[in-house]
Here is the input.
Amino acid sequence: MVGRNRVDERVTVLGLLLAAGQGARMGRPKALVRGADGVPWSVASRQALVDAGCDRVVVVLGAEAAAAAELLGGHDHVVAPDWSEGMSASLRAGLRVAEEGDHAAVLIHLVDLPDVGADVMTRLLTHAAPDALVRASYDQRPGHPVLIGRDHWAALAAELDGDDGARHYLARHGTTLVECADLATGVDIDTPEGCGTTP
Here is the structure.
């Protein structure tokens, strides 16, 4: 279910899945990691954004992009050429795609949060609006996904740098936290030990 704005008009949302990193501690790009069920994290996370009700979903790739794109089976993706500069490069690439469309907001998710599903995303999408700044929290700990309205895209893109993503921008602009600990842990997985992944 997508959000509705203050005059109850339908708000369209672009889902952005950031999956460009090299995954140094994981030993391979996280876009290529498969869960215990054999499904690649990139595929499962993309499907969760679709199931939550995003009108379009784009996966941002970088390291081993060709192999990751093959796993996606032709689904919408973009390659961040400067992905090695960190998460900000991936987010910039995603925001460029968003600017080309007419969506009112983007829902940004990370590929290494395998226990965060469509139910969390759906909860955030109820807040979708052009001026939205909303992020999931887990026991009051800010996490992902993050919902950012179109009104903020230009200012955010102008200050993105390094591996911090939108964190500083969100901290300065009164982001609304939506508690989701009843649905997921929101813990990112950085190493293969104990995460139930397969090669």
In short: The radius of gyration is 15 Å.
